[in-house]
């Protein structure tokens, strides 16, 4: 590359751009495998005594860790403000990143290696200052080392993409394709000038800087001033045997004639924050994102393949694709691989490209291996073109105490962080699985979203949990941020829970927090949360708030039984809430509008479920469930209560077996009588059979109820029918397709044309009554399954419901 002795402030003579003498400015594209190979060739030829790399100089003490055998890219330098870890920035490096190649070359060769970009202490403070004073620009696709802070809208409008401009000038509409053609597929032949690519790229960037100035990246002027000062300092120490690896955009600025005073003037008065740096794992998927230091490369997996393939990259790539598709049971043979390679080469020749690129290989894979389908092609794009590679950093890397404790827990529980999302099924009866559950719940409480709980596929019991795990690099920032709460996961989660309990203002928030504390087994935080819960529950008189809070307490008691956690105090509070709900619910349901009635119906459903989970007091005149049943009976019979709530109350009583024969039909008959407005009657039906309550199956198996609905619907006046139709459509659209089809067949057969069916009427194909002899034949097997033992002798005649009594 060019000799900077001419462009330094001392005004030496211009150098020969192609000359072998240093310093050498190696302008690169971040995360470009072609640039990485060219950098390695140039360093091998020049053998500089010092290598200067674009990056935060505070990380110089961490550079030696790159030679550690346990350091596996992709990795990133993480910088965060000490007293505010949320203010953070990343400098990622993949195996094919020119910066990583230069760093490893210097360490292996024994050369001095330094970072020369603007210190993170300044860049983080400048980002915070701009965020507080300027409107967001709507773009966040630059690296911390390239201006992650948001600029104003006017400034962002002037930004240019250097590669995009060069590609457009060359007649390309795709910058990625242009870069592949001119760099990735243009390896120098033996004996060629290793500095030639950098000289040509430097000339192109010089022309762009002359035309566009800073290109809308005003902060680059400050960064480049600092880099020039660091370059001068290195030259005083090592002479001209210095190589600089930086973004090609900065090469003209580093070669510009400036004075030390002018550069220092640009750096004067910069804001500053105390920052800490460390290495953290990174992922290929994160490199592919157009945010933060994602750098916006679309195909990190493809770039990694190009960099590591010693020869025949297309053939090796097609072999990888075939292996992946075979793992997914796609029929791909060696003939498919051969034809795909041939087609990719043919497409490249037709398109005038030196070698097949990602576009050609993708088209060939789609046509040959995927038979024109984009479904398997999406898998190739996700697994290979992007990839799920997760880097590793050695234990010697600096880390906050919380991160070290988390790492120890992950190893002891055999929960290795992985970039690929995976399902984790836990059986809480096993000690290791219970410990894993506690860790994941504690991390969730701290805002570290490594795992997301999902519905267990194996069991609906309380002793199983299902999690989806996926480690993202940003979680390292969350861990550093959570470090303010404590040095261990347990201590931090406990402190966070206590702080949330003290600051909660809504009863439902505290009950949800109590549930999370129990799931995370935070025994020290639970008393604090319980005191806050008792205080808030005593002051809150809103029945809606009480009804919203009770389900979480009931679930907490349920899980407490499984995990062996003492919940006596929690049960006391939950019982008190339940009793207050029983007293205040009927008045609270009076005079509600349609939206209010729908919301209250949901709360009643939740409370009904919670009542079944709460412990029932023994020896009292009336159990809690009996009191709740009496409340539902009041709601079902009050005309001042909206129809949707009345219908739901009748349905819940019916499901509990607390309505006698014909009571449900009587309530429905009253609700659907001629004197009831059609809208109110439709709302009653919505409450009775709507939602996910299984109302469709109820109508299928009880044609008397279906006949009542059908008779009412056929009698709705034409002018009112359009008003009730949307509500009815919402009610019946929630049913399964098979249920809707069966109901349609029953209605077409005409159950509503004859009025309510007689008491002894049955569905077609069934007898007129119960066959007790056939039912009794099942009883021994049922007793065996339930572990009830042999039945007692009963010489008398069997009574109806005998089998149901045995089941109880």
TrEMBL record:
Region Disordered, residue ranges: 1-27, 127-154, 789-808
A Pfam cross-reference name: DUF5682
Superkingdom assignment: Bacteria
Name of the featured protein: DUF5682 family protein
Lineage: Bacteria, Bacillati, Actinomycetota, Actinomycetes, Kitasatosporales
């Amino acid at each position: 590359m060019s000799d900077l002795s001419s462009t330094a402030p001392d005004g030496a003579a211009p150098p020969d751009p192609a000359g072998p003498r240093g310093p050498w400015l190696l302008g690169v594209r971040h995360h470009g495998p072609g640039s990485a190979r060219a950098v390695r060739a140039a360093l091998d030829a020049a053998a500089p005594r010092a290598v200067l790399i674009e990056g935060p100089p505070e990380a110089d003490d961490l550079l030696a860790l790159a030679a550690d055998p346990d350091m596996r890219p992709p990795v990133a330098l993480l910088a965060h403000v000490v007293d505010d870890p949320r203010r953070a920035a990343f400098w990622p490096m993949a195996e094919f990143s020119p910066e990583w190649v230069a760093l490893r070359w210097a360490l292996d060769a024994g050369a001095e290696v330094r970072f020369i970009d603007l210190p993170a202490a300044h860049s983080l403070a400048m980002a915070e200052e701009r965020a507080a004073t300027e409107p967001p620009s709507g773009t966040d696709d630059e690296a911390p080392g390239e201006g992650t802070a948001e600029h104003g809208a006017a400034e962002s409008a002037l930004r240019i993409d250097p590669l995009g401009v060069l590609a457009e000038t060359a007649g390309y509409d795709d910058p990625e394709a242009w870069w592949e053609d001119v760099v990735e597929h243009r390896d120098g032949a033996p004996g060629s000038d290793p500095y030639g690519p950098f000289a040509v790229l430097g000339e192109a960037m010089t022309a762009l800087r002359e035309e566009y100035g800073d290109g809308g990246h005003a902060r680059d002027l400050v960064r480049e001033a600092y880099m020039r000062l660091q370059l001068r300092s290195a030259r005083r120490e090592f002479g001209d045997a210095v190589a600089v690896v930086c973004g090609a955009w900065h090469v003209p600025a580093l070669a510009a004639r400036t004075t030390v005073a002018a550069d220092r003037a640009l750096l004067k008065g910069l804001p500053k924050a105390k920052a800490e740096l460390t290495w953290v794992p990174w992922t290929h998927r994160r490199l592919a994102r157009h945010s933060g230091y994602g750098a916006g490369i679309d195909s990190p997996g493809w770039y990694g393949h190009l960099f590591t393939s010693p020869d025949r990259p297309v053939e090796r790539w097609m072999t990888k694709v075939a292996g992946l598709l075979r793992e997914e049971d796609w029929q791909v043979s060696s003939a498919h691989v051969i034809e795909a390679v041939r087609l990719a080469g043919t497409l490249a020749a037709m398109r005038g490209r030196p070698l097949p690129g990602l576009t050609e290989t993708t088209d060939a894979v789609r046509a040959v291996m995927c038979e024109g389908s984009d479904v398997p092609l999406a898998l190739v794009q996700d697994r290979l073109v992007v990839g799920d590679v997760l880097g590793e950093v050695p234990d010697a890397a600096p880390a906050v105490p919380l991160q070290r404790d988390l790492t120890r827990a992950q190893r002891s529980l055999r929960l290795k962080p992985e970039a690929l999302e995976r399902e984790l099924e836990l059986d809480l009866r096993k000690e290791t699985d219970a410990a894993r559950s506690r860790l994941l719940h504690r991390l969730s409480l701290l805002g570290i979203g490594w795992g997301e709980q999902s519905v267990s596929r194996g069991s609906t019991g309380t002793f199983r949990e299902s999690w989806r795990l996926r480690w993202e690099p940003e979680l390292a920032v969350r861990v550093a941020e959570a470090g303010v709460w404590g040095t261990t996961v347990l201590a931090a989660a406990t402190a966070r829970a206590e702080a949330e309990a003290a600051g909660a203002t809504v009863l439902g928030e505290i009950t949800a927090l109590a549930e999370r504390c129990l799931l995370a087994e935070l025994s020290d935080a639970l008393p604090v949360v319980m005191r806050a819960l008792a205080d808030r529950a005593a002051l809150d008189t809103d029945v809606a708030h009480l009804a919203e809070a009770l389900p979480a307490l009931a679930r907490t008691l349920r899980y407490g039984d499984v995990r062996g956690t003492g919940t006596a105090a929690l049960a006391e509070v939950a019982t008190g809430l339940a009793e207050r709900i029983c007293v205040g619910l009927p008045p609270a349901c009076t005079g509600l509008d349609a939206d209010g009635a729908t919301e209250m119906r949901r709360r009643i459903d939740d409370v009904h479920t919670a009542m079944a989970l709460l412990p029932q007091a023994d020896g009292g005149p009336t159990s809690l469930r009996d009191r709740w049943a009496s409340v539902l009976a009041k709601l079902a019979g009050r005309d001042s209560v909206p129809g949707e709530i009345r219908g739901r109350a009748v349905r819940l009583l019916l499901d509990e077996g607390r309505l006698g024969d014909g009571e449900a039909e009587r309530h429905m008959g009253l609700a659907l009588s001629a004197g009831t407005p059609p809208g109110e009657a439709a709302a009653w039906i919505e409450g009775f059979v709507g939602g996910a309550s299984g109302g469709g199956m109820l109508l299928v198996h009880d044609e008397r109820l279906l006949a009542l609905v059908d008779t009412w619907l056929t009698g709705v006046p034409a002018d009112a029918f359009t008003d009730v139709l949307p509500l009815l459509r919402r009610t019946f659209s929630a049913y399964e397709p098979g249920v809707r089809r069966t109901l349609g067949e029953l209605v077409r057969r005409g159950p509503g044309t004859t009025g309510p069916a007689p008491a002894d009427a049955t569905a077609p194909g069934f007898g007129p009554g119960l066959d007790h002899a056939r039912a009794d034949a099942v009883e021994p097997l049922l007793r065996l399954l339930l572990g009830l033992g042999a039945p007692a002798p009963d010489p008398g005649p069997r009574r109806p419901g005998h089998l149901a009594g045995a089941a109880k």
